[in-house]
Amino acid sequence: MKRKKKSTKPFVLIAIILIVIPLTLFAKYQRDIKIPADPSDDSVIYFQIERGASIKSIGQDLEEEGIIKSSRSFRVYIKRNEPDLKILAGRFPLKKSMTVPSIIKTISKPSKAEFAITIQEGLMIRDIDKRLLEMELTSPGEFKAAVKNFEDWERYDFLNRETLSKLDLPLEGYIYPDTYFLDPADFHPSELIYKALNNFEKKFASVRNEIKDKTYHEIITMASIVETEVFGEEDRKLVAGILWKRLRNNWRLDADATLLYIKDDRVITSADLQSDSPYNTRKFHGLPPGPVSNPSLESIKATITPIESEYWFYLNATKTGETIFAKTNDEHNRNRAIYL
What we know:
By secondary structure, the protein is mostly helical. Helix content is about 45%, strand content about 10%.
């Protein structure tokens, strides 16, 4: 009996599959890498890379922005060609008309990066100095020194040279909280100072005409206290009203924020309460010599248009952060026992 000859078709089919699929995938990979996502689009897209971002997440973000065709091909290219690649944190000018190798070259080149620094509401100049040091943009104390040596007073009419130049850090309160993009290749602290002052000028212009019976310096100093003492628009207006009322009635402000300004930690001791520092508003009457933080526009507005109330006291509950108000000292002491 003749044996039936086995068909070779399945083996040929398998062989074809094993050859064709890899070739197809490789061809797609080559297109993803060598052909831009949109060769005709030369518009600049500022692409932000956060510190510590993974190659996978960067690739996904690039694909979502339409800057590259495939995050997978992006990762494969780096693994094959740039295994030791160091991608920088910062903001980079990219285009959809760039190839993947060009994009990778850009986001790994320090001269192409813009570093982003976010100054949160209530930060002090010494905090900003530390941030810049952590970003390796400055040496220790370099930003503080630039603030101390600031001389361009005539450029900004909201800065009172006579008053501010007497302070250790004369621009405290005027470094407006926001996100700023900096050039690490040629950074000098004055770059951030001018960006922040220009921003302050723009924001402050919307409210400065509402100031009637106080100086700009008094408003910003009080706003810096309100910023640090309490959260929320209405609570800030209530606290601003309380603090202005205390001043009018020759009461001490008794604001922890002013004492904490001269501390390196967040703990107020009995010795601190007896300090002869002019920032000790638990001992001395009146406003401190200058701002104790860099306040937001919300806190500045609250200080300009406070809410008048029957309250004279306030505290922030330890567990919830809620602001608790009181009309009398006895009521305030009961609140202290309950909430602190």
